[in-house]
Amino acid sequence: MLFPGQSLIEYSGLLLGTWMGNLVIMIYLVQWYTIIPILLRQFTDLVNIIPLPETPIKSIILLMVLLIT
Question: Does the structure show a pLDDT above 90 at 1?
Answer without folding.
Answer: no
